[in-house]
Structures are given as structure tokens and as C-alpha cells.
Write a structure and sequence with these properties.
Elements: H1 3-10, E1 14-20, E2 25-33, E3 39-40, E4 43-46, H2 51-71, E5 77-84, H3 92-104, E6 110-111, H4 120-127, H5 144-163, E7 172-176, H6 180-192, E8 195-199, H7 203-213, E9 216-217, E10 230-233, H8 242-247, E11 252-253, H9 265-272, E12 276-277, H10 280-283, H11 286-296, H12 300-308, H13 310-324, H14 328-346
Helix pairs in contact: 2-14, 3-4, 5-6, 5-11, 5-12, 5-13, 11-12, 13-14
The structure holds nicotinamide-adenine-dinucleotide.
């Protein structure tokens, strides 16, 4: 793999390989694009089989963060870090303090947060070495309420496009997963009078949703065949694939899970069936909004107000899709690229403070 060529193809600004022999730290920080602001993205700890595998992941994930923050309307660029290690490694302090020192060495161009294999406690170790870290204990906390609120309003916007009005009262929503994002989403749906079907590999979580919210539990594999108006994937990635798209009977797919399309062509297939697909990184942007809110010192209410904008963003995505005759997942990318381009254009004018 030619690293510079990969950077050129995807437009990365900077990739930093770091090693601390004192604790056996091997990490890569990728900064994709900082047109809109410092590159924000979590740190993933994973036992990658090779440096190449880790590099591919960090390049892909950091680029995704540029797009996610751009469509969320935040003054943030995209970045990501990976540490090649067992996520259950016990010597957390040395590992994450080493990481913090490397983050600090970038002078604020990259801001980290938690991700797969890391926790708020790990971020406290990072914090001892740098202030460029979010997702700390007792600050913004669990992002799921803001994420699910964004999913809820995005779902309503899709209903407006699909059925002419955004009320979800009387609609049946099949929610895959009954975890954190799913549960808060189901609360909003219940308040609006929607009927809820849900499933989870953890039977206790389904029981909780049935008892607390009056949801109906279904078998995990049966969720794709459900007679429902909306499918809300809130558990796993790659659940929109050759097998499942053929089985869906819904008019809208709108859920919080990351990377819902198994391959890009599935974003085309789903629309051929007449289903409105809300691109995952647009509708689940409440998570990054929550982190941004922490950096800005926002209250949860303020973060939720920002997440409310996801309603208009979903409408805009479908407008661009119609305007340019492209599937919604491509329209989301175009919306992000248009924002970055317009901000870049503003920077051609010199103002005091520029050097
Ligand atoms: P979570 O772990 O609380 O919930 C996920 C649930 O999915 C778990 O209860 C798990 O048992 C269940 N699950 C796993 N495999 C399943 C299967 N085959 N069928 C049905 N259920 C299954 O996680 P979460 O924070 O609610 O996140 C859910 C999704 O949303 C993830 O894809 C996550 O990356 C994404 N996301 C979350 C946030 C956030 O703020 N938490 C933000 C953006 C994106």
C-alpha cells in the first residue's frame, strides 16, 4: 500500500505514525480535512493484524468524520486515531498518556474522543497530557439521548418527503436493537403515538422496551420481514445488503447505526425499491454534535436544539438527490462537499489575524 497515494486519492492532509517504546505504544493519527476546523474523531483500540489494516481503517474513518461534521453544520474537520493493541490491555495509564502526548504534539489540529475499545476513563488519562480531548467523565456524558433525538427528527423529515406529513402517529416502526440509541428513540416514538416493534440479541433489553414502552418484541432475524412503515437500524452495520433489502416492506429506512450499507451499490438498490433511505452519518450526527457541545460548554438542551437541524438537513439531502438525480447517500456526500467548498471560498479574503 502506497501511503501517499492513498492520501492523495482520499484527500488526507496528514498522517502521523507514532511509537513509544516505554509502553509498546503503536498508533496512527489521520487528519483528513481541516477546512472547517480542527479534526475531531475518536481513538479506536483494536488488535489489527497488520500496520496496513490499521492504516486503511484510520484513513477511511477519518474521512467519514469530515463528512459527518460538515453535514452536521459544525466547525470541525475530520480525523481519527487508531492504537494497535488489545482493547482489554490492563496498562491503560501508560498507553493513553502516551497517546495524549502524541495528540498534544499536533497542537490542536486533532481533537480526540472515545470510540471502540476506549472509555471516558481512558480519556481522563489522555487529558493528563493534552487539552485536545472530549468525551470526559461528568462532562457531556452518554451521547445517546442527543443521537436518538436527531434520528427521531430525521425520521419525521423523511416521513414528510415520503407521505406528505411528518407525523409518525399510527405508523409502525421496526427498531433493530433495543440498546441505548434504540431505547431513547422508542421513547420519542411512543410519545408521538407510533407502534413499535423491536428485537435484540439481549432478551432483557427487549423485555425492558416491552414493559416500559409497550413495544412488541420480534425475533432478531424477523425484523427485516416485519409489516412496518419504517425500519430503524440501531444495532449493527452492513444490515442493508442483498438479502435484507429484498425482504424489507417499509417505505423509509432511518436509524442510528453506523455504516448501514454493506456496499455503496446497496444505496442504489434500496431506492429502486421505492424506499427513502436516510444516510446514516447524517441522521446519527447527534453523537458528534454532543461532543462538539462539550467542547463549547453547551447544555444538553442546546445540543438537542442543534440536533433538531437534522430535520432540515434530511430534507436538503432528498432535495439534492432529486436535483442531481443521484441516490440519497451520494447526495449527503455532495451536501458535505458543497459546505466545505463554500467555506474554503470564504477564506480567499484576507482578514486581520490571517498571516
Ligand atoms: P448499544 O450497545 O447500547 O446498543 C446496540 C444494541 O444492539 C445492543 O443492545 C446489542 O445487544 C444489540 N445487537 C447486537 N447485535 C444485534 C443483532 N444481530 N440483532 C439485534 N440487536 C443486536 O449501542 P448504541 O450506543 O445504542 O449504538 C447503536 C448503534 O448506533 C451503533 O451502530 C453505534 O455505532 C451507532 N451510533 C451510536 C451513537 C451514540 O450516541 N450512542 C452515535 C452515533 C452512532
Amino acid at each position: 500500500m502506497d501511503t501517499f497515494n492513498e492520501m492523495r486519492l482520499r484527500g488526507h492532509e496528514q498522517v502521523v505514525f507514532s511509537h513509544d517504546p516505554s509502553c509498546g505504544y503503536f498508533g496512527i493519527i489521520a487528519i483528513h480535512d481541516t477546512t472547517l476546523g480542527p479534526a475531531l474523531g475518536g481513538t479506536r483500540v483494536w488488535p489489527y493484524a497488520s500496520t496496513e489494516e490499521a492504516l486503511k481503517d484510520v484513513l477511511r474513518l477519518s474521512r467519514g468524520m469530515t463528512y459527518k461534521s460538515a453535514v452536521a453544520g459544525l466547525n470541525l474537520g475530520g480525523g481519527k486515531a487508531v492504537i494497535i493493541a488489545d482493547p482489554k490491555r490492563p496498562d491503560r495509564e501508560s498507553l493513553f498518556r502516551a497517546h495524549g502526548r502524541f495528540v498534544e504534539s499536533l497542537g490542536g489540529r486533532y481533537i480526540t474522543a472515545e470510540d471502540v475499545g476506549t472509555s471516558p476513563t481512558d480519556m481522563e488519562f489522555v487529558k493528563r497530557e493534552t487539552k485536545h480531548v472530549a468525551g470526559l467523565l461528568n462532562l457531556s456524558g452518554d451521547p445517546s439521548p442527543v443521537t436518538s433525538y436527531g434520528v427521531y427528527v430525521g425520521m419525521k423529515a423523511a416521513a414528510k418527503v415520503k407521505w406528505g406529513k411528518d407525523s409518525l402517529a399510527g405508523k409502525t416502526v421496526a427498531v433493530q436493537g433495543a440498546g441505548k440509541v434504540a431505547f431513547y428513540l422508542m421513547k420519542h416514538l411512543k410519545e408521538e403515538g407510533a407502534k413499535i416493534l423491536t428485537c435484540d440479541i439481549d432478551a432483557e433489553k427487549v423485555k425492558h422496551a416491552v414493559e416500559e414502552l409497550g413495544a412488541t418484541g420480534v425475533a432478531t432475524d424477523a425484523i427485516y420481514d416485519a409489516q412496518a412503515d419504517i425500519f430503524a437500524p440501531c444495532a449493527l452495520g452492513a444490515i442493508l445488503n442483498d438479502d435484507t433489502i429484498a425482504r424489507l416492506k417499509v417505505g423509509i429506512v432511518a436509524g442510528g447505526a453506523n455504516n448501514q450499507l454493506a456496499e455503496e451499490r446497496h444505496g442504489v438498490d434500496i431506492e429502486k425499491k421505492g424506499i427513502r433511505y436516510c444516510p446514516d452519518y447524517v441522521i446519527n450526527g447527534g453523537g458528534v454534535i454532543n461532543v462538539y457541545g462539550e467542547l463549547q460548554g453547551w447544555t444538553m438542551d442546546r445540543a438537542k436544539r442543534k440536533a433538531q437541524e437534522i430535520y432540515d438537513t434530511i430534507l436538503r439531502v432528498f432535495q439534492i438527490a432529486a436535483r442531481d438525480k443521484i441516490p440519497s447517500f451520494q447526495a449527503a456526500d455532495r451536501l458535505a462537499e458543497e459546505r466545505i467548498k463554500s467555506v474554503m471560498a470564504l477564506k480567499r479574503m484576507w482578514v486581520a489575524g490571517d498571516r
